[in-house]
Write a structure and sequence with these properties.
Strand order of the largest sheet: 2-1-3-4-5
Order of helices and strands: HHEHEHEEHEHHHHHHHH
Distance between the termini: 21 Å
Number of strands: 5
Strand content: 5-15%
Radius of gyration: 24 Å
Shape: elongated
Largest sheet: 5 strands, mixed
Helix content: 55-70%
Structural class: alpha/beta
């Protein structure tokens, strides 16, 4: 294994990327546009789906049952109130209602919570029972703060999958890999150079995006920047290895594009990037734990929102590390030059 050859391939790939001005500009502008839209548009509007955590749902009081029968609200049965108040702060649940004691908790910055509170008050309008209103304690989380880690993780996913998978397939299609096969370069050296090239580009580009957007929108960041760097770096490696598996043997750009979309779209919608899976079907929540993007997003949120350390997110790091090793070994094993 020659580091000199790896470095030569690394420089060549970087030069190719920077010469493609359109791809470079789009990789920077896309996440910026998404974050701006969510900062100034969706934080003002009411999402279509509401979630209410509920205890005492069997209370026979008419007002409780009237509220319980409200359409377009997902009621989630809770075993404990205190353990779920954090979910109200994070906008994972819009309102928590203790039907036995006629008390409810909301996040005053949540547009969802505002609507659900009005529906709850309307249900108790003519009832003899009096509602007790409580606002969640602690530093409340804006939807913008909650969605930003997922948007950055999603941008890493697109750059990793298509920046590796699509490029290697294109190399194979146009005979670049065939020419490299005639040189002393080994598959391990070639794949290592591709991983290192894409890794530093992903980390550098998304670091610049984070810094620039933080200056503009002032994200919530209670944890360590080093820990966040570790999460995004390890997540980048894992997602790059996913792209390598797709590109290991395929020579058709159309097939590669379909497979990469097959990987990316479920992750984008089922990894909790845009909305919480709280209250979703149990099989969907379990399936989401298989997806690397879920662990990148959740670990980043725990660092940025809760100030979690590496010990607290060790489970996410372990999954990403094991997945990376398995995919890398498998991708190198099935790789072919032609």
């Amino acid at each position: 294994m020659s580091w000199k050859r790896i470095y030569a391939l690394f420089v060549a790939r970087n030069t190719e990327f920077f010469r493609d001005r359109t791809a470079l500009a789009w990789s920077i502008l896309l996440p910026v546009l998404i974050i701006i839209v969510f900062a100034y548009a969706f934080t003002e509007d009411n999402p279509e789906k509401f979630k209410v955590g509920l205890t005492g749902s069997n209370n026979p009081v008419v007002a409780v049952q009237n509220f319980r029968s409200t359409r377009f609200i997902k009621f989630i049965e809770l075993n404990s109130i205190d353990k779920n108040l954090e979910k109200v702060e994070r906008h994972q649940i819009d309102l928590v209602f203790d039907a036995d004691n006629f008390r409810y908790w909301i996040n005053k910055t949540s547009p969802n919570g505002y609507i659900v509170e009005k529906l709850l008050i309307a249900a108790f309008n003519n009832a003899p029972q009096q509602l007790q209103r409580s606002v969640v304690s602690g530093d409340e989380v804006r939807y913008l703060d909650w969605v930003v880690p997922g948007v950055i993780a999603m941008n890493i996913m697109w750059g990793a999958l298509f920046g590796i998978g699509y490029v290697i397939v294109r190399y194979r299609k146009f005979g670049v890999l065939k020419r490299l096969h005639a040189t002393p370069v080994t598959p391990l050296e070639f794949l290592s150079a591709q991983i290192l090239s894409r890794l530093w580009l992903l980390v550098a580009v998304n670091a610049l995006i984070y810094i620039g957007m933080d200056l503009l929108l002032n994200f919530r960041m209670h944890g360590s920047y080093f820990n966040l760097f570790v999460v995004f770096t390890l997540g980048s490696v894992c997602l790059i290895c996913c792209g390598l598996v797709v590109a290991a043997r395929i020579s058709s750009e159309e097939v590669a594009n379909g497979l990469l979309n097959l990987f990316s779209w479920p992750m984008m919608f089922l990894s909790g990037v845009w909305f919480s899976l709280e209250g979703a079907h149990p099989w969907m929540q379990k399936f989401a734990l298989i997806l690397p993007l879920t662990h990148v997003t959740e670990a980043a949120r725990e660092i940025m929102i809760d100030g979690a350390g590496l010990v607290q997110i060790a489970d996410h790091l372990l999954v990403l590390s094991l997945t990376s090793m398995i995919l890398l070994v498998f991708g190198a094993w099935i790789f072919r030059w032609e």
